[in-house]
Amino acid sequence: MTFPYPPTTWRLIQTPPAAGAWNMAVDEAILAATGRGEAPPTLRLYAWDPPCLSLGYAQPAADVDLPALQARGWHLVRRPTGGRAILHTDELTYSICGPLTEPRLAGSVIESYRILSAALLAALHRLGLPAQSQATPGPANPNGKGPVCFETPSNYEITAHGKKLVGSAQARRREGVLQHGSFPLTGDLQRITQVLVFADPAARSTAAERLLARATTAQAVLGRAPSWQEAAQAYIAAFEETLHLSLQPAELTPIELEEAARLADEKFAHPSWTERI
Q1: pTM (2 decimals)?
Q2: Distance between CA atoms of residues 25 and 191, nearest Å
Q3: Does residue 106 lie within any of the structural domains?
Q4: Sign (positive or negative) of CA dihedral 236, 237, 242, 244
């Protein structure tokens, strides 16, 4: 195979399930560390406990039905990346952080999405999923942009049987690039509509039906639910092969842990961030 970039080594971090504020804080701490050159570009694989609703950077907090969310014991966090709401549960989440000098992350948002989506696609193929990457968005919601990420089309969207299978978002900053995304392994995707605000029950029901028509899970496609570890191994092998990488397992550095703790407390778990709009 001919690669458009030279071989290199990235760091691989696998973290245990954690609360939403901590997960977002860790991603941002890794972004800062890789941007300062204190850590190599990093692929992180993780999960969420308890389930957490994440809002996109510019999504109104008013989209959330807080009493319904709290009644279920689910958390709320705002991502540093764009897009719409995602309910994180029963999934594998990935994040990629690195400086703009890394050729696999260079160029525009669309260019880097295209490169990274090739690795994501290869991971799904390793699991036996008939996934495809769509270079341009599919048909939009005819009633306007809804609050749910998985019903909103995007560039280089990854689908199976025409339904969205991986939802990703990216932030590009002076210090580098953060892209993270959600791969639902199993579960009822319609659960998210129970913790979002709709005009009336009929609108909620319509949104739930639309979501199921436009999004899917690995289990729904395969007829079985891949384990988190099985999916993680597929991601690791696919990223190494597709992007000409060697992924070296590592832990977060003391500086990253300290920065993540600060960010979780002062930003991602704080109303001034979560309720910023």
Answers
A1: 0.94
A2: 25
A3: yes
A4: positive
Longest Cα–Cα distance of the chain, Å, equals: 55
**Out of 124, 149, 171, 177, which one is annotated catalytic?**
149
Q: Specify if 1 maps to a domain.
A: no
Evaluate whether residue 34 is within a structural domain: yes
How many structural domains comprise the chain?
1
Query: How many CA atoms within 13 Å lie on the side-chain side of 83?
Result: 29
Give the HSE-up count for residue 187: Cα atoms under 13 Å, Cβ half-sphere.
16
149 catalytic residue (yes or no): yes
Residue 277 lies in a domain: no
CATH number at residue 48: 3.30.930.10
Residue 143, SS3 per DSSP: coil
Give percent of the chain with pLDDT exceeding 70: 92
The answer, yes or no, to whether residue 263 has pLDDT greater than 80, is yes
- What whole-number percentage of the chain has pLDDT above 90? 86
Strand partners, 75: 52
Phi and psi angles of residue 44, each rounded to the nearest 5 degrees, phi first: -115, 135
For residue 10, give the nearest of 275, 245, 276, 228 by alpha carbon: 245
- Domain span at 31: 8-270
